[in-house]
Every structure is written in structure tokens, then in C-alpha cells.
């Protein structure tokens, strides 16, 4: 199964200030603020929903196709993804812009001052999926993740026109989209991904009820935080899968991306929806135990031991054949 993942490609530059921002602010001079903070450290992390999902699929032995736009500074990040099983041949490289970047400073009270530079991400709207499909010999599924909004709309319209199955996964971009745009993005999707809060927001913005939305998509996949995930289909009983037991809760960033990686990989194996969701939940557990979205290592023996404990011998036997 050839799966393309479209989505933002970005790096995070995270710094820590040992003091308090509030102590540096003068109340009657806020209209002329000019501050510079001497920080203790700089942590540069690879990110973006597209690479996060593809990295997880690569860890599980897949060969996902990353589709997005990056800057001329992408070489090192590309090498990292290539090493971890990601096909980066369809990433558009801007000739003039840097890769999208989030720069953030956090003080001792966990207050943050940050900026997001869109950069090359704005060029994702120029990518045509037909060229991707021609390069790899066809596409069986396209996940349309959070990206440049115009790119998301173009990819969705192209999938519909070319009858390519697609998964709608607009996550953080839902905040800036109106009802018409959201209706376009989800109508006809084979899978619709969201968390519980986004589920309610989708219904509010579109004006469609839960039942109406379910009638317009093949499967509605709703992540439930610590309670796992629920998968719904018209006329079928819903499927609910719980989370595997976590050893530590270090950082929740990227957990949703990891679930999607595991779920899509399970589908590519031909596994059932329940089994695919179990793989997704297990991979998400590894991410929550790790600082950073692509810093975990999938040790297969350990993964299978924990998967067996969470979901039983029969489920583990099915998954083991693909991981080995």
C-alpha cells in the first residue's frame, strides 16, 4: 500500500530563560518594549506533522512518501528522514525561503514567548499529487495533514478529481478555517482524524451533526487522550481501543502524530481497524515517554512485549508477522 503523507515540515528552536519575563516588564513602557534575554540552552528539534507521521511509519518498517515544502536548509533533516525509512523524493525545496521554524523562549514560570515562521511551507500549494503518484507508481491513500491551508484544499480537490482515497486530518489548522473550507476538506474522506475537542469544533463550524458528518466520510477516527481512540462507521458498531500502559509521562507533543503513523502502517499491512488502532496507541505510548517527536527508538522485542501485555497474544501474533 503506497501512502503519501502531506503536512508541514518544520524545526523547533526551544530556549530556556532562567528568570521571569514579568520581572523584565515595565508597566508604563509596554508600548516601547525592547528586550533581549540571555538564555541557558538551545534545543533544536525536528518537527512538522508530515515528518513526524512519516518517521513513525518508517520506524515500523514502512516506506511512507513525505509530501510538503521545505527550504534550502533541508539537507540535514532530509538525511535523517532518509535514514529512517522515509521517501523524501517528493519534498519541494524552495530556492529562496528557509524551512518553517518555531522559535520559542520559556521562562522559569513556564511562560512562553514564541514566533512561527511559515517560510517554505507556503510553497506547498504548488505541489501536484499527480507528479507524486507518477513517480512512485500510484497512490493508495493520501493523508492530508495540517499544512499551508491552500495546499490542503488543493490536495483534497485533486484527490477527489483523481479518485484517490484520502484521509482528512486538519488538526491545528482548524482554528483558522471557516465552515465552508472544513466541509470541503472532510466531504468524501475515507478517514477523518480529530481529537475530542476538534470533533466538537468541526461540528460547530460546519453546522453538520455527528451523524451527518459520519455519513460523509468512510470512517471517523477520534483520539480520546488517555482513554485511547474510537472508530465509527455508518451502520457498524463503534470500535474503541485503550492505551497501552505508559512507563513515564515525559512530553505529549507528537503523540497524535505517532498514533496516525501506527494506524496507517497497520492499514498498509492489511490489518483490521482494531489492530491498526492498537499499533497506533502503542506507538503513541512510546512518544509520550520521550522528549521530542522523533527521538524515540522502536526496539521490536520490547515493543512486542508491551503490545502483548496491552492487547493479548492473538493480537500480538498478527502484528509480529509484520514487524519481524
Report on this structure.
The mean pLDDT is 94. By secondary structure, this protein is an alpha/beta fold. Strands 5-4-1-8-9-10-11-12-13 form a nine-stranded mixed β-sheet, sandwiched between helices. A four-stranded mixed β-sheet has the order 3-2-6-7. Helices cover 38% and strands 22% of the residues. The protein has helices at 49-59, 75-83, 129-136, 149-162, 179-186, 196-206, 210-216, 255-269, 273-288, 300-311, 313-323; strands at 3-6, 10-16, 41-47, 65-70, 87-93, 100-106, 112-117, 141-145, 166-169, 191-195, 219-223, 229-232, 239-241.
How many extended strands? 13
Q: Tell me the fraction of residues in β-strands, as a range.
A: 15-25%
The helical percent reads 25-40%
Number of helices: 11
Q: Please write the string of helix (H) and strand (E) elements.
A: EEEHEHEEEHEHEHEHHEEEHHHH
Largest sheet: 9 strands, mixed
**Whole-number radius of gyration?**
20 Å
Instruction: Average the pLDDT over all residues and give the rounded result.
Output: 94
Low-confidence parts: none
Terminal CA distance: 18 Å
Shape type: globular
Strand order, largest beta sheet: 5-4-1-8-9-10-11-12-13
Amino acid at each position: 500500500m503506497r501512502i503519501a503523507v502531506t503536512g508541514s515540515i518544520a524545526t523547533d528552536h526551544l530556549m530556556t530563560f532562567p528568570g521571569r519575563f514579568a520581572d523584565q516588564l515595565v508597566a508604563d513602557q509596554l508600548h516601547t518594549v525592547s528586550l533581549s534575554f540571555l538564555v541557558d540552552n538551545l534545543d533544536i528539534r525536528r518537527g512538522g506533522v508530515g515528518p513526524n507521521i512519516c518517521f513513525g511509519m518508517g520506524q515500523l518498517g514502512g516506506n511512507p512518501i513525505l509530501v510538503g515544502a521545505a527550504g534550502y536548509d533541508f539537507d540535514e533533516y532530509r538525511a535523517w528522514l532518509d535514514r529512517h525509512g522515509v521517501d523524501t523524493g517528493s519534498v519541494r525545496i524552495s530556492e529562496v525561503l528557509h524551512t518553517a521554524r518555531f522559535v520559542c523562549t520559556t521562562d522559569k514560570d513556564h511562560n512562553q514567548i514564541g514566533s512561527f515562521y511559515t517560510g517554505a511551507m507556503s510553497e506547498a500549494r504548488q505541489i501536484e499529487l499527480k507528479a507524486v503518484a507518477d513517480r512512485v507508481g500510484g497512490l493508495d491513500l493520501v493523508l492530508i495533514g495540517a499544512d499551508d491551508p491552500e495546499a490542503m484544499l488543493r490536495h483534497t480537490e485533486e484527490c477527489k478529481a483523481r479518485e484517490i482515497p484520502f484521509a482528512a486530518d486538519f488538526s491545528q489548522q482548524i482554528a483558522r478555517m471557516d465552515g465552508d473550507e472544513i466541509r470541503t476538506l472532510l466531504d468524501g474522506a475515507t478517514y477523518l482524524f480529530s481529537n475530542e475537542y476538534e470533533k466538537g469544533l468541526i461540528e460547530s463550524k460546519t453546522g453538520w451533526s455527528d451523524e451527518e458528518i459520519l455519513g460523509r466520510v468512510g470512517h471517523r477516527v477520534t483520539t480520546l487522550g488517555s482513554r485511547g481512540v474510537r472508530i465509527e462507521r455508518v451502520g457498524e458498531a463503534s470500535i474503541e481501543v485503550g492505551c497501552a500502559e505508559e512507563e513515564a509521562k515525559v512530553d505529549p507533543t507528537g503523540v497524535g502524530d505517532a498514533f496516525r503513523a501506527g494506524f496507517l502502517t497497520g492499514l498498509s499491512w492489511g490489518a483490521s481497524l482494531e489492530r491498526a488502532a492498537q499499533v497506533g496507541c502503542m506507538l503513541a505510548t512510546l512518544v509520550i515517554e520521550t522528549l521530542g517527536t522523533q527521538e524515540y527508538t522502536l526496539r521490536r522485542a520490547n515493543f512486542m512485549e508491551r503490545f502483548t501485555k496491552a492487547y493479548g497474544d492473538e493480537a500480538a501474533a498478527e502484528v509480529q508477522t509484520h514487524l519481524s
